[in-house]
Amino acid sequence: MTTGVRCDRAGPVATITLSRPEVLNAQTPSTWIALRDFGRALPGDVRVVVVRGAGRAFSAGLDLAAAQAALPELAALEPDPAADRIAGYQEGFTWLHRPDLISVAAVQGHAIGAGFQLALACDLRILTEDAQLSMAEVQLGLVPDLAGTGRLVDLVGYARALEICATGRRLGAAEALRTGLANLVVPAAELDAAVDDLVAGLLANNRDAVVEIKALLAGAARRSPAEQLAAERAAQVRRVRDLAGLGE
User: Is the pTM of this model over 0.85?
Assistant: First the structure.
């Protein structure tokens, strides 16, 4: 089975495109391994990664036809090897949140299940007005296991995340914007321009400063107030020394 995903690069920007529009970019284990391999091979001078889906949907989630073979195969493994296999799939998502990059999901139409989790794996999300999000794994008797649960709690809090995951209901773009799941909602015809504008803004500033800022913000919830202040001081000292030509 083809992976249904490609990676293109233009200077400091890499674009990952789910490319099975005939099935609304439904994902398979091969898709997740391809995503993992893209992350491992990404050149160090890439600063921004844009994730998008070809056609009228971002991703309809798990390819149910592929799941008919993949799930029994996973079930036949002993627990530790099964967990190791899932860990490999998770890596296809978690690298999108690494500190030296900023990732942007450009979401149109459906982002269901694994599609929603892929959007959540990104740092920022731009949605079209027709976007529909759903953590639909529960409707298959499964759980979200592609690094989506922690990201969802970080963005909307425990109670709302529980309601979203346990019901599997759909969220429209307006609710996504209101609850912090979307950074911006635009008409479908304006999605490409909105992504281009955001990417240009991200690239306009000093890369090392952006990396330090992302690390400060990403770790803030896990630090005490005193630890956060100390992290700010340390980051600023590094920046001042670097700008003065005294950095390592």
Answer: yes
